[in-house]
Each structure stands twice: as structure tokens, then as C-alpha cells.
Input
Amino acid sequence: MSISTYKVPIGPIHPSLAEPMTFNFEISGERIQSVDLAPGDNHRGIEFMGRNRNIVQIIYLAERICGICSASHPFAFCRAVENAAGIEVPLRAEYIRVIIAELERIHSHILWAGIAAEELGFNSVLYLSWKVREEVLDLLEMLTGNRINYGMFMIGGVRRDITEQHIPRIKKTLQYYKDVYQQLEDIFLKDPSIALRTKNVGIMTYEDALHLASVGPTARASGVKKDVRQDQPYSAYADMDIKAITPDVYSGETNGDVYDRIIVRILEVFQSVQIIEYCIDNLPDGEILSEPKIIKLLGLLKKAKGEGVGRHEAPRGEVIHYVKLNEAENPEVWKARAPTYNNLMSWLPMLQRQEVADIPIVIASIDPCIGCMDRVTLVDSNTNKKEVLTREELIKLSIKKTRRILG
Amino acid sequence: MSGGSIVIFILNILGALIIAVLGIMVGLFYKGIDRKLAAMLQSRVGPPIRQPFLDFFKLMIKENIIPENAIPWVFNGAPILALVSTITILFYIPFGPIPALLGNSGDLILIVYLLAIPAIALVTGGFSSGSTYASIGAQREMVLMMSYELPLVTTIIVLGWRLNLAFPGLKVFSLAALSANPIWGLIGPLGFIGALLLFFTLVIVTPAELSIVPFDIPEAETELAGGVLVEYSGRNLALFELANAVKMLVMGALTIALFFPYNLSPLLSLTGFLAYIVDIVFFFFKLFIVIFFEATFIRVAIARFKIDQASTAYLIFLSATGLMGLLLIAIDYII
Output
């Protein structure tokens, strides 16, 4: 018997999506038969804008790639430039960078938890968890002057110091999150109606996670022990012993479902609390910038030549920035790869054979950030239509380019 | 037709108009309270209590869009059908000391049928609006309706049956008779537990009747962008909102009439006009408590179910609860 299906488009504008992205579903009854992704509605040409600016100006641009990862992108970008130009970062600055990055992880994960609850139709939890999130935002505002776009990062260090007066306030926030942990666990991991909607929903197996190169909590929830902070320790993370968190730490088993992704994120909030605690207790003395004079720094970067890669474990997974400097004011190439780009294909196995009611929570479960991810949109200038290149066409184009380079 | 019956006829029409207007206003008012209370439970400020009225007036001046591939007369007719049928129920339900307007000509069985009509109107409206989202929503509404009817009917039949055993001569399904002899007075301790189970059944059926979380599956904002109501706008949507507000009042009043018909005036030994006022105030207080537990509290405490989970919950668990209540009351009677 053949199954008759009907098409349901979700997106580009839909209440469960915060950003434009299209999913074309083939559905029979309430079951999803197949799904096709059509991204490309949110391309902002940010890399092109970057190539017309100098390095210090790009930091502010990188901060605005994503509203939530506004510490992760400049972190990765600064590391890429420092890598290319061979700049050493003072130790104190490395610690402050890590403190900001981990505070950002706390606020990002709690924000995600609230959104996930809203997708389940559990609005009370949305309001309660966002109330919990305010505490860390207040702290970030006190440390950096801003709630979201911190403006902390600078090539060769950070722009603001964390002084003695800040320490008690930071400790108060850490204590607050330790106190509130039990509540978060009760709400998200022990509530029967949340468990009913998230257990055995949107499963991605260990093999799929490896095969599709998923990153971040999405991969870790499937049992892949993958974390840049653990695999290739950098910055102040190298002084700590950080272990990738997989759901079996909490529940003793790894299913790779939405519930496991909640576990990973809730546990990571408290991993971050511990990291910040370590950083505050061991904050070294010294400078916070290798070169405080920006004009001198720009002059230095103007003379630099080389390529650099910066990696950082953002709340959503590994973010990579690539920079090529060629003795000019502007970088020759700037490439940013956000974690959502890797996790995009994870949706396909997750959504397979799920119910319509599961679509919002499964989509939200990888914590997508479409604005970060959209890098290329092909538009035919004659017809003004969007184009999709298949794998074969891409390979053909690559071969053509290789031939051209080889002459 | 004699002179007297014409006067009664005109009085009935006048009464119906007054009840319709008052019912809508009270319904919207309680909806405002419900929203404010839910907001306080979720630790946010929430809209002012008059917000549902403002929403209604705003919707009335908005454009009323009919989709290209909708069937216009069904699409426009569905909200009117929903509102009319819910308002009709008001004529058959006593409000505290005020007896039902048409109490003699209709009973609980009629109310159960009338309660199903708004849901059917939603389904027809959803299917006729020619949108995929609305079609999925309409399918879900149908499934949900078929699931919660059994426990609802079980509760009502058991109450009537028990009353019939106690007073064989009575018109047992008339709400006046049921309110005059509350179930709690007819039964022993075992039956008390049974009646509690029946009450629980009715409380859990109410969120589905009102399509609020956790049983707002047909509308499911984050999944279906409004589901059955996705294509509705302007006046049509306003009528559906009104129907929903009135339905909230109906479900509250029904619960009170079936389970808590007690009045305060006999206790305070008041008579005449004062007793009337006290009882009406007490009725609205009871309504507030009932709506708080049937609608507000449930909707802030649980996540939305999936349609299969909701269907299982109603058809198996809640029906079992209702039948268990029946069994306990039966055993109580035999003993």
C-alpha cells in the first residue's frame, strides 16, 4: 500500500522559528515521511563587509554575527588574528576572556532552556528560566557595560579589567546559580510532562553524529565526547582539566534524544560555574593588553602577513574563524564558520518518522542560529532566482578552479 | 395564542438578550482575570483585566480576510455557529440563585450536545479555510473531541443515575433537580470517593473543551501557528474568542451546578432581596475558584501534550477514572 502524503512548509516565517529558515515536510497523517531544508533567507554578506574594514573594526562586526554568541565569535576571531600576526596575549587577559565566554555560555544555555519550554507549550517555564537568566545578564552588564554585545575582546587581550571590587559580585552570581541548580534540575529533568514530550524524540545516533560532523551539545548528547576545550585546550582552559559532558553522567545512558540535549546543557551551566570559580581564584596579575595603543597595533597588523585559525567552543559548538593577512589594512580573507552550519544536517535523522507535534522542539533542540550560519546564497542576476548547487556541480567547479590555479 | 403566553414569549426573548450580553461580558471579564492570574503565577505583570474587551474591539475593526481557496459561507458561518451554540447553553444553566431561563424545556443531555457544537464549528471552519495548518488542526480537534466526550458523558450519566435511585419520580437530568439535590448528600464514604473521581474527570475535561494548554493541541501556536484558527482574522476571530470566553463561563457554571450548588444565604439565615445579592456574589466567588483550578492553574503547570498522548489520557486513563467513580458509587449504593 502506498502512503499518501501532503506537503507542509514550516518557515521561512513561523512562530516556532526565531529566524527565517524553510523546512519542506512530506507528512502522512501526523508522521513525517521526509524533510528538505532550504536555508539562505538570512544571508547578510558579513564577511564581505569585513574585508572592507580594518582588523579592529572587524571585532565589532564579529560580535554582531550572532546576538547570543557575542563573546564566542570575537574570541575566535581574535585568536585567528593573533595566530596570523604572532601576537602573545597576557595571561590575565586569557583568564578574563574565559570568564566572559563562560558567563555567555550560562546565559545562552538558560535562554535555550526557556525557548525549548516554550516550544513544548510550557510558557511558565519560559518565564521562570528567563528570570533566572537575568542574574548573569546583570553581572555581564556590570563587568562589560552591556548585556549582550560585550565589547570586551581586543587583539592581544581584553578591553576592560576585572578588578577587586568585581569579585564579590561575581561570587554572588556563582552562588546564585549553585543554589538554583536544584530547581533547574527539578523543572527540566524531573518534570513528567517535559519528559513525556522529550524522551525518545528526535533521536540522533552516535554513528550519525560522527558521520554528520555534529558539534557542541548536539554531538555530546549523542555520546560523542567532543569539546574544543577538552580536545585542544587553549587560552586559560589549558590550565584546567575540562571534560566533555555526555548525558550518561547524569542518567547513566545515552539515547541521543531531546531529553539528553537538555541534560547536557543543564550540566554545562554548572560546569561553567566551576570554570569561572577556578578563574577567579587563580586570576594572575599583569597587563590585560599586549599593545594598549590601538594605532600602534593597527600599524603592526598592517605589516603582518600570514594565515591564522581561531577555534573556540561556543555554547552551540565549535566556532572557527579563518583570517588571511597580506600586508594591507584590511584582511584579504575572513571566514567565519558558526556551529549551526555543522549541526544543520543533524536535523534530517532527528526529524525522520517523528510527529508533527515534535517539529518545534526537535528544531529547537540543536539550538539553531540561522543568522550565524547563512554564509552563501546563490542568486542568478538575470532571473533574480535563488539557485541550489548539487554536489556534482560543486565538484565540477572545484576541479575547474584547481586546473586554473595549476595553470 | 393567549395574551399570557405572548407576554411570556416576549419576556423570554428579552431575558435571552440580557443573558447573552451579560454572559459575554462576564465571560470576557473572567478571561481577563484568568490571564492576570496566569501572569502572576508565571511571575510577570500581565495584561490589565479589561484586555479581552480591548482585544475584542480591536479585532472588530480589523480587516476580515477570507482566503482564496476557502469556502466562504462555511468559513463565515462556523464562528457564528460556535458563538450561538455556546450562548444557547447559557439559557439552560442556573447561575446561583437565578434559575435557568429555559430550565423546563431542556436538560443536561441537551447541554452535552450543545457543548459539542462549538468544537464541530471549529472543525468545519478549519477544514473550509483551505490551509494545511488548519486541516491538521481540524483533524486534531476531531480526535480530541471524540476522546473527551466519553469521560464527560460518563460523569453526567452517573450523576443522573444516582439521583434517579434516590428520587425515582424526578426529572433527573434537569439541572434544577441536580442542583437541588447535590451528589454529596446522597452517598456514603465510598461513594464520596467515587464522586470525587467524577469531579476530577470533569475538571480535566474542561481544558480540552476550552482548548487551553495542555490540550490546546488543535491550535498549538508553536507547531501549527494557530491551527484551526490560523486563517481567521477580524470579526470571525473575534466571534470565536467570544465563544471561547462564554464557554469558560459555561464550564464553570456547569461544574458549580453539578458539584457545588450550595448557597450562602441559608447558612446566614438571610431572606428576601439581601439573600439574593449574597448568593449571586457567592456564586461569582465559586466561579472564580472553579475557573482558577479548571483553567488557569492547569495551563500554567503542564506542557502541551501530543495528540496521541492526549487521546490516550482521555480515552483510557480518564474514562477509567470516570468508570471507577461509577463503580464506587454503585458499590456504595448496593452496600
Notes: Chain B has a mean pLDDT of 83.
